[in-house]
Amino acid sequence: MAGDETRVTKISTLNVHAHRSTECCLVQIHGPELGKKYLIEDAELTIGRDQHNHIVVDLDNVSRRHARILGRGGKMLVEDLGSTNGTFLNDQEVLQASPLRSGDLVKVGGSIFKFLDGDNIETQYHETIYTLTIADGLTGINNKRYFLEYLEKEMGRSTRYQRSLTLMIFDIDHFKQINDVHGHLAGDYVLRELAQSIKRLVRREQCFARYGGEEFAIVLPEDGPDKARLFAEKIRRLIEGKSFVYDDKEIPVTISIGVAEQMADMLEPTHFIKVADANLYKAKKSGRNRVVG
Q: Which residues form the FHA domain (predicted)?
């Protein structure tokens, strides 16, 4: 989204703030209108695929009238409108009108909105936009842009101080099949759950990022290849043994991992990534659910 102009949409008919002293808005943090802000100035605001909604989300997994935000008793609530795929508030399905708090995440089909409320929503909005430049909206971990900048910086440090630097690249085995059999919302769930599970194992000085689609990367400064491989095996076993359940159906998930150590002839991040990616390809070709490197 770098360089894109952020558009601000105001929607107003009935002023819901007659009984509220603060403003509120929704910011799309994942989906087709990334970064777009919607000020909530109505007693009711609908979200759906149909053009007559206040917020139009043109995705196949969004119903024509999917959800609505409404003001009631001085509070803002989110309510599902009988959608096919459901509305989710902080990953919990909305079964009845539920109150919103600043920072809450509302998932409508393949899009995610962040609800902001309070006297300083402009500051919150700019903080949210900044986060979007370095973080992936779906999984909550670092994005590709941040990963590439971090890797380049650490490669320079590694060369300068003669320290080990290791890179892991991995992806989800047969992820297309998960989407085809269980649906794209289930695929989103797997990506998010996998990322959050692995995130707990990653140290602060390391970088864990979504590299693209179902592909992820971890940069390990000062960890030698042996230690990195042990860590890769730990992650592989964690995902293999984790129960992924979506819509009461268990989804088997495994990952394949390629590991590479920075060598003297690796002058650019693309060179380093190419070696780790080649090892990932070997892991795939040799049967998946394994570590190569």
A: 45-94
Instruction: Evaluate whether 75 touches 99 at the Cβ level (below 8 Å).
Output: yes
- Distance in angstroms (rounded) separating the CA atoms of residues 112 and 186: 15
| Alpha carbon distance 256, 245 (integer Å) | 21
Does pTM surpass 0.70?
Answer: yes
pLDDT score, position 17: 45
Fold of 144-291: Alpha-Beta Plaits (3.30.70)
| Residue 143 near residue 197 (C-beta atoms within 8 A) | no
Name the residue with tokens 């970064």: 35
Task: Indicate where the chain has its CATH 3.30.70.270 domain(s).
Answer: 144-291
CA neighbor of 69 nearest in space, from 51, 87, 93, 43: 43
Q: Kindly indicate whether the domain formed by 24-133 is annotated with CATH number 3.30.70.1710.
A: no
The CA-based diameter of the chain, rounded to the nearest angstrom, is 65
Residues of the chain with CATH 2.60.200.20: 24-133
Residues with active-site annotation = 214
